[in-house]
């Protein structure tokens, strides 16, 4: 079955950097786009970045453009989120996501999340 395991979160000062990783298993990783979402306390989950199956196309939320970079290594079944120039408003739980469209309808798969806290 689809399994996504995030890692790399932590506490970082404003202006600092973190690199999140998401290890995927249970499916042919190189066939599917992948995304990172985040959810801050009291707020809805929002899309941060997405990447195509080959890595040739990416998209980003306006709030993180120029600071975050999504990438993937299909040989390692892993997607990454490099986060630079972190701000307190980036504090959230970050989730890896992959989507499927089945006969019975669409389905989202999520990891357990990794906490990112930006604070001095």
Give an account of the 3D structure.
The protein is mostly beta strands and about 120 residues long. About 0% of the residues lie in helices and about 55% in strands. Strands 2, 4, 5, 6, 9, 10 and 11 form a seven-stranded mixed beta sheet that branches. It is globular, with a radius of gyration of 14 Å.
Task: Draw up the topology in text.
Elements: E1 3-7, E2 10-12, E3 18-25, E4 34-39, E5 46-51, E6 58-60, E7 68-73, E8 78-83, E9 92-102, E10 105-110, E11 114-118
Parallel strand pairs: 2-11
Antiparallel strand pairs: 1-3, 3-8, 4-5, 4-9, 5-6, 7-8, 9-10, 9-11
In short:
The chain has 120 residues and is mostly beta strands. The chain contains no helices and eleven strands. The model has no long low-confidence stretch (mean pLDDT 97).
In terms of DSSP E residues, the strand content is over 45%
How are helices and strands ordered from N to C? EEEEEEEEEEE
Q: Tell me the overall shape.
A: globular
CA-atom Rg in angstroms: 14 Å
- Total strand segments: 11
Query: Portion of residues in helices?
Result: under 10%
Largest sheet: 7 strands, mixed
User: Stretches where pLDDT falls below 50 for ≥5 residues?
Assistant: none
Number of helices in the DSSP assignment: 0
| Mean pLDDT over all positions | 97
Q: Structural class, from helix and strand content?
A: mainly beta
Q: How far apart are the first and last residues' alpha carbons, in Å?
A: 40 Å
């Amino acid at each position: 079955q689809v399994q996504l395991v995030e890692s790399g979160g932590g506490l970082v000062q404003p202006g600092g950097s973190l690199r999140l990783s998401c290890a995927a298993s249970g499916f042919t990783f190189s066939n599917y786009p992948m995304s990172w979402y985040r959810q801050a306390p009291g707020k809805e989950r929002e899309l941060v970045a997405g990447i195509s199956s080959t890595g040739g196309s990416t998209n980003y939320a306006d709030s993180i453009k120029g600071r975050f970079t999504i990438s993937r290594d299909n040989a390692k079944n892993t997607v990454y989120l490099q986060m630079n120039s972190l701000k307190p408003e980036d504090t959230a739980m970050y989730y890896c996501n992959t989507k499927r469209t089945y006969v019975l309808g669409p389905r989202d798969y999520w990891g357990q999340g990794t906490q990112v806290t930006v604070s001095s």
